[in-house]
Each structure stands twice: as C-alpha cells, then as structure tokens.
Amino acid sequence: MKGLLERNAGASSPGSASRLLLILLGVFVLHSFAQKPSTSRIQASNRGILLENLSWDEAEPILTPDRVVVIALGAESKEHGRHLQLNNDWVMAEYLRKRVLAAAPVVIAPTINYSFYPAFLDYPGSTSLKSNTARDMVVEICRTLAAHGPRRFYIINTGISTIRPLSEAARALSSEGITLTYFDFDEIDGVVKQVQQEPQGTHADEIETSMMLYIAPATVRMSKAAKDLHPDRPGPLTRDPNATEGLYSPTGAWGDPTLATREKGRIVTEAAVKAILSDIQNLQQLP
Q: At what angle do helices 262-284 and 206-215 cross, to 10 degrees?
C-alpha cells in the first residue's frame, strides 16, 4: 500500500493522495466487516445464526436462555430405493435448515447425520445407531449447549424411526429443565392425504420422491423409480423374498414413486416448512 501511495503522490496532488488513502481505508473496513459479522449485528438480525460460523466469544452472548437452538437431523447414509441417493434425508434436512435460517431468529447448530434406522440395514450403504446411542447423542449435544444458557431445543426431524430416540431424549432432558421438541411428519398428514395417490407408502415413495423433485431434483433418478408394494409382514425391509420376517422390497423403496411430481412435492414441503416454523414459534413462547 505504501509503494502505491508514493507512486501516486509523485504523479498527482496531495489532495488526490488523501482521497486515494480514504478510499483504500474504506475498502479495508468494508472487507473486514464482510469477513465475520459482529456480535451486535448478529443479535439485531431477525434471521437465524449458524453456530458453526462463530468463534466461542461470539457464541457466548447469543447462547442465552431465551434463544431457541435448532438442530437438523437427517441420515447421510441410508438407502432410499434405487432412484434416490443414500444422503436423501441429509439433503432434505439441510434444505429445511436453510429455510428456518432465513425465517426465524434462532441459533442453528450443526446437522446430525446419523441416528436410529434399523429397518434398512439389508441394503448396502445403510447405517444405523442403536436407539439408546441415538438418544444419548441428542441428549449430550443439547446438555452441553444448555450449560451456556439455552433451555429450548428443536430438532428438524426427517425420519420416522427417529421418533423413538427423540421422544426418549426429550423425557431425559425435561428432568433437567431443558425442553426438546421435534418435527413429526404426522403434523402434515392431512396435506399429504390431499395429494397422495399411492394406496400405501412410507419410504422413498410417492410423497418423499415428490419432495425431492422440489427440493433437489438433480438427486432424483426417475428412470429408476419403480412401484414396490408387497404383502405386509412384520419386521424391517428385506431383499429376500423367502424371508419369514420383514417387508419384502427388492428396490428398497416402499410405495409407488412413479406417481411423484414436483408440484406434489412443493405442496408437501411448504406445509412442512410452515409446520416447523410454527413449532419453533410455539417453543419460543414457552416460559
């Protein structure tokens, strides 16, 4: 900078050099502010705050008892038929997380990408924690953050089997004065029934595939989608047609994803976002 100013000073008047110095200082200040928001500007924002982007001293003043902490939960390695990616739930969770970030003044902690998914382990790439492990992970995350102030937590849940460890985690935390609530797809069951055409379906089906056509269409291989419905049997999904237990599914899906459309996905996804934001608002109003 010094060399530039000296060269310009030799070719122009002192006033020009002063103006150049002010311009350069202005650029430097703007650049500094753009690198990382100050704590005061973070607190004044009506948008959410990504916890991972802060330093600990910036996190300290925003982790207050009146602040809701939101955590997205979605498997990053779980089968979703032949037409959806293993990271399907994680992609959905990240999308819903971004929608909350833009609409609610909450602290958003990093996404959890493993949990309790025992029904899909017959398919390569699928992973699952034990139920008590999934429960304890959520409890420990909330407990350690609560030690610095927050007492209200919300999980953007994208699974069904995850309800069990989440409900147990909520009970465990409540005994410590910490409130945990979470999204359950049953909250939008009425909307789902309005658009659903398949007679049955719970996994990588018409509804879930429709949501992904709306959220992340590049991740959907509709050419590989296939109707996969067979007589119900108790147990997890299985690729073995001769198994005495389990729900036979050669594709790993359960439903009819061939009926999926982006418009159905838009309706269901927007209903989910509305329900999640409503849940968070209700949680914010708790004493």
A: 80
